[in-house]
Write a structure and sequence with these properties.
It is built from eleven helices and four strands; from the N terminus they run αααααααβααβββαα. The protein is mainly alpha-helical. Strand 3 and strand 4 form a beta hairpin.
Length: about 325
């Protein structure tokens, strides 16, 4: 018997489709009632654009995290350990396997979000050791481990900026490959056949809150939910009818409901991310990017041209966001 023909990794298929359908850095078509967060009035136009991009990047990482919950429940996958840790890792693997700079920036912002969330909570509440999620800083460092495990050279500066131990970085090289093989083995039997597609129901629910409308417009213009549908339809044998919903929730969150077969991304989650990023700029006036870059970005914006996403300065990990469920 001859050898089996090579097949494209389902991980890489999802990642490639996500890249093909993403509009990272796209200019949102804002509704008239939409209004940016008040904190934007205390920062520059360039910084406000960065805060929007930061919120968008974390929304993308969040929906991939929730997609991990979706795969586990839809396929009744075994989880040895905490499910939240498992889907954190899967989301990062999918994004890194895209081997795309925009998605590398998404992962960097995902790490930053947990560093700054931890910092923001220092004086506000006790550490929730009982929570189903890992501690915020643990989630950040686990993300960094996968980053250097995938491409130590690409993420060297980021790792150095947080004094990530060299011995740990070496371990991460092995751990990344082991984790990748494990997920591919678990998901492989559920890979879709050629021509298979899944019909998703996508909704961007209206909101009467002008600030939330700002972020509704942002993710709708970027096609965040469409990205999820395109990435997973034709990649895995998912049944039709899964709902991908963006909505006002009353809290900064995101979650997957197995009973309803519905993923929900809350507009408040983007607002929270953007506000904490804006606050970082206010608290760190010396952390601004050089004025030439600022002026160029403002000129692009005024001309109606989207500014490309920028890799954030890892020297001062920052950002904000809430836990995704």
């Amino acid at each position: 018997m001859g050898s089996m023909p090579s097949r494209r990794s389902p991980m890489r298929t999802v990642a490639a489709l996500a890249v093909a359908t993403s509009l990272l850095g796209g200019q949102p078509a804002r509704a008239v009632e939409a209004k940016p967060p008040e904190l934007y009035g205390e920062i520059t136009a360039e910084q406000a654009a960065e805060a929007d991009q930061f919120a968008l990047n974390n929304a993308i990482a969040t929906v991939f995290h929730e997609a991990g919950h979706m795969l586990i429940s839809e396929f009744s996958l075994p989880v040895l350990g905490k499910e939240e840790d498992a889907v954190d890792a899967l989301a990062v693997l999918l994004l890194l396997e895209a081997e795309d700079e925009d998605f590398n920036s998404v992962v960097e912002d995902w790490a930053n979000v947990w560093f700054l969330t931890a910092s923001a909570k220092e004086d506000e509440e006790d550490v929730a050791f009982w929570d189903s999620h890992g501690l915020d800083e643990q989630r950040a460092y686990s993300t960094v481990c996968l980053m250097v495990g995938k491409d130590k050279k690409r993420f060297h500066d980021f790792a150095q900026s947080i004094e990530y131990p060299e011995y740990r970085a070496e371990e991460c090289l092995v751990e990344y490959q082991s984790l990748l093989r494990s997920w591919e083995k678990v998901l492989g039997p559920h890979e879709a056949a050629k021509g298979d597609k899944t019909a998703f129901k996508i909704t961007y629910a209206p909101t009467k809150d002008p600030r939330l409308a700002h972020f509704r417009d942002l993710i709708k213009a970027a096609g965040v939910m469409e990205m999820v549908a395109a990435a997973f339809s034709g990649s895995y044998k998912l049944k039709d009818g899964i709902k991908l919903t963006a909505a006002e929730c009353g809290e900064a969150n995101a979650f997957w409901s197995a009973d309803d077969r519905e993923m929900t991304l809350c507009y408040e989650d983007l607002l929270n991310s953007a506000e904490l990023d804006a606050q970082w700029y206010i608290d760190n006036p010396d952390g601004e990017e050089d004025s030439a870059e600022d002026e160029e970005a403002v000129e692009d914006r005024d001309a109606g041209q989207p500014s490309p996403p920028r890799v954030r300065d890892a020297g001062s990990p920052r950002a904000g966001g809430s836990r995704s469920g």
